[in-house]
Amino acid sequence: NYVIFNGNIIERSEANVDIEDRGYQFGDGVYEVIRVYNSKMFTATEHLERIILSAKKIGMELTYTVNEMKELLTQLITKNSLEHGTIYMQFSRGVAPRNHPYPPSDVAHSFVAYTKEVARPLANLENGVKAILKEDIRWLLCDIKSLNLLGNVMAKQEAVSQGCYEAIQHRGEVVTEGSSSNISIIKDGTLYTHPASNLILNGITRRKMIEVCEKDGIPVVEEPFSLNDLNTADEVFLSSTTSEITPIVQINEKQVGEGVPGVLTKRIQGLFDAAIE
Ligand code: PDD
């Protein structure tokens, strides 16, 4: 099993993180999760452009181009004979004596990537999942895919401890996103999802979903929607790289619609499947 460590492909057992890596001490860095289907990365360009942008937003100028990263990741997929799975990759601001200000700009970023075999979540796609509601207590730069995930982790844990798959977060009355996914609702044949702003991660799956809906003539409204809209929605689903388009059939104690995946959700799943192939 091989990993990318600071630009080289090495055995995982040879990779060592320094105890003063800023990613480790401050969560000072950015990451991506990319899906691999049939040994090929799905929407790689979008993910790699996003990590460059996330880095830029925290004052890190990555030294790799999209194509250089693509090249390395493709080599890693081949080396690990990965067919269906994910790539996790992250850049931290590097290794320096612990001190809050950024280290000098000649300190090299730490770049790590590894692969994992993951099957498509067929049972969840078919049957849907349950979710809880959770006040969104995270910071105000949720558009950055940063290593600081404590708010997300705590929200997810609360969902899991209640036997649920996801926590649907809201700031007051406004629904933002899941702990590791974006949230959309269907009302009277129209899809509503929170606009790309500082309050959510602009998911690549979300963008693909909007693209296939618009092509198929399903109206999409990128506007904030309320808890009341969520509670009275015909259909609710989440989207992410690993969960794809997963129906949400129950929120807290209340069924969504008939308590089974909705008609339009299934249609969007089909459109998404076609985009994968
Ligand atoms: N999570 N919102 C948050 C907070 C996320 O962490 C994610 C992805 C998404 C969906 O983004 P995308 O469609 O680009 O995967 C939305 C990844 C998969 C993770 O942290 O594992």
TrEMBL record:
It is an enzyme of class 2 (transferase). Its EC number is 2.6.1.21. The lineage of its organism: Bacteria, Bacillati, Bacillota, Bacilli, Bacillales. Its cofactor is pyridoxal 5'-phosphate. SUPFAM superfamilies: D-aminoacid aminotransferase-like PLP-dependent enzymes. Homodimer. This is D-alanine aminotransferase. Keywords: Aminotransferase, Pyridoxal phosphate, Transferase. InterPro entries: Aminotrans_IV (IPR001544), Aminotransferase-like (IPR036038), BCAT-like_C (IPR043132), BCAT-like_N (IPR043131), Class-IV_PLP-Dep_Aminotrnsfr (IPR050571), D_amino_transT (IPR005784). It comes from the Bacteria. Signal peptide: none annotated. One of its GO terms (molecular function) is D-alanine-2-oxoglutarate aminotransferase activity. CDD domains: D-AAT_like. It catalyses: D-alanine + 2-oxoglutarate = D-glutamate + pyruvate. The gene is dat.
